[in-house]
Specification:
The chain is of the alpha/beta class. It is built from eleven helices and twelve strands. Its EC number is 1.1.1.133.
Length: 302
Amino acid sequence: MTTRWLVTGAHGLLGQDVLAELAADPDAAVTGLGRDRLDITDPAAVRAAVPGHSVVVNCAAWTDVDGAERSEAAATAVNGTGVRNLARACADGGAILLHLSTDYVFPGDARGPYPEDAPTGPVNAYGRSKLVGERAVVELLPDTGYVVRTAWLYGEHGPNFVATVLELAARRESLDVVADQHGQPTWTRALARQLAALGRAALTGRAPAGIYHGTSAGRTTWCGLARDTFRLSGLDPERIRPVGSEKFPRPAARPAFGVLGHGKWLRAGLPPLPPWDDQLASAVRLPAFAELADAARTTRRP
């Protein structure tokens, strides 16, 4: 039986991979809407878009962390009120909602991975705006709402850290990269597969509603990620120099520790995402990254 899926934020880094993953499913009929066709802050537009779909995957978000610090109300309109609009429309139409959130809802002061039910406490406006959205899903969709927290996303379809360090490798002999922030790099293609699997499990009643952590297994730092990206791309990882966060002051504070636990997946009968370094080894072979690495290896830097 064909299942109708709606993907919001369909033109983004994650949204494009979710569309591709669902397009490969012969039992899925997929509608992808970018912001040009659906502004989730518009309640009427959301009420018109959701009916007729069984699963909504919300990849629409304000993702400019520093911009949120300057414009918290605007960020909350998207990450909070917009999500409430979607959750209400899903409740009215009987649809399942898979909503993407972030590790930034936590304060970053833990010593071990945050479980899904750990107390929240964002340290910046972006995290606060995302927490508003999480609460809307839990409140309005207690049985059919799924919050999937993710972090450190990279992929083929938009700006991201892995692409940036490879681009900089062609222009700089060495790169200073923060070594005191800990997290879990997550490949959007792998996360898209996980979201599709969660949606199917939700449709069959196998996955309990609530909060899941959609990040890779393991942990590293931004410096560790940069070094592994270089190593796997045939570049010298020693060109990456570790520095402290104080070297790059930003308007928004960043949590020092964003490592998440993955226990909820077992209750859904689904394995968590694989280790981050295994995912990275696969991702850097894709043309989008391989071409950047090739340019970095062949460019003569000053």
